[in-house]
UniProtKB/TrEMBL annotation:
One of its GO terms (biological process) is protein O-linked glycosylation. Signal peptide: none annotated. This is Glycosyltransferase 2-like domain-containing protein. InterPro entries: Glyco_trans_2-like (IPR001173), Nucleotide-diphossugar_trans (IPR029044). One of its GO terms (cellular component) is Golgi apparatus. The keyword Mitochondrion does not apply. Residues 11-153 form the Glycosyltransferase 2-like domain. Keywords: Disulfide bond. One of its GO terms (molecular function) is polypeptide N-acetylgalactosaminyltransferase activity.
């Protein structure tokens, strides 16, 4: 038996929100981040409080249709490594009219690493034996509406906590699922309405493009191997803005120890001799400075917060 709890995370409604959710027939909990943390970190907070077997993420501006939930849960029950999305119907942001979406589109992306809907290709129709009710394997998901086995979510490594505010996390999770042995599906028997807005309602401290490029560059660096070069070719600003490197499994030493609550000391009673050499005995494929800069940039990105700007100012390469 699967137990599901839904959690909302909202910024600025204050008391009113608590009062409203207390009137709902389904037991609902409000969690607050202390400061604005962005969509990814807010979701991680929600996920941490899930006590059921399945985490189901839904944007606030969604409306579920009858029978939306069972087809999602039954797929996960069959194989816990299946991550599932409903068909996302359109709710007009103008009139709130409900418009059923096509079951003939799936998720893709362009080289700016924007999520895009594309027509389901013939090969996927053939794989499904022409049955339009059977689960559709989709390369990527829109991100606002999906269900995942809770333990599997953490086995995959959850979200990349280094992403800010909004954007890129849907492709990141899609690539994560496919590259870590999971399957990402759209379940045509499950429909949920979503208000698609013309313009983003969010503010982006430091500028939209800075944040979106930052997040997308993390996706490219972590998941795309040499294909990331297409992203940088199409988005030279991203290449400048950030990084020859990011994140997930960085192996720092000293800063790591201090920042994670440890201490690093020199013990004055202990002496060990060490041969210091005039030049390094190692070879650096691709060039010394390329590799050293790469490693140092990771250090700066992961541990130095806004101080990383000093590093980039002094090391423009
Ligand atoms: Mn949304």
């Amino acid at each position: 038996m699967l137990i599901l709890r839904l959690h909302f995370i909202v910024d600025h409604l204050g008391r009113q929100l608590e009062e409203y959710v207390a009137t709902l027939p389904v037991k609902t909990k409000v969690l607050r981040t202390e400061k604005r943390s962005g969509l990814i970190r807010a979701r991680l907070l929600g996920a941490k409080h899930v006590t059921g077997k399945v985490i189901l993420f839904l944007d606030a501006h969604c409306e579920c249709t009858e029978g939306w939930l069972e087809p999602l849960l039954s797929r996960i029950a069959m194989d816990r490594r299946t991550v599932v999305c409903p068909i996302i119907d359109v709710i007009s942001d103008d009139t709130f009219e409900y418009i059923a979406a096509s079951d003939m589109t799936w998720g893709g992306f362009n080289w700016k690493l924007n999520f895009r809907w594309y027509r389901v290709p013939q090969r996927e129709m053939e794989r499904r034996g022409g049955d339009r009710t059977s689960p559709l394997r989709t390369p990527t998901m829109a991100g606002g509406l999906f269900a995942i086995d809770r333990d599997y979510f953490y086995e995959l490594g959850a979200y990349d906590e280094g992403m800010d505010i909004w954007g890129g996390e849907n492709l990141e999770m899609s690539f994560r699922v496919w590259q870590c042995g999971g399957v990402l599906e759209i379940i045509p028997c499950s429909h949920v309405g979503h208000v698609f807005r013309d313009k983003s309602p969010y503010t982006f401290p430091g500028g939209v493009s800075r944040i979106v490029l930052h997040n997308a560059a993390r996706v490219a660096e972590v998941w795309m191997d040499e294909w990331r070069d297409f992203y940088y070719a199409m988005n030279p600003a991203a290449a400048l803005l950030i990084i020859k490197a990011v994140v997930l499994f960085a192996n720092q030493l000293m800063i790591d120890v201090w920042m994670c609550g440890g201490r690093l000391e020199i013990s004055t009673c202990s002496h060990v001799g060490h041969v210091f050499r005039k030049s390094t005995p190692y070879s650096f494929p691709g060039g010394t400075s390329k590799i050293v800069n790469h490693n140092n940039a990771r250090l700066a990105e992961v541990w130095l917060d806004e101080w990383k700007e000093f590093y980039y100012a002094i090391n423009p390469g």
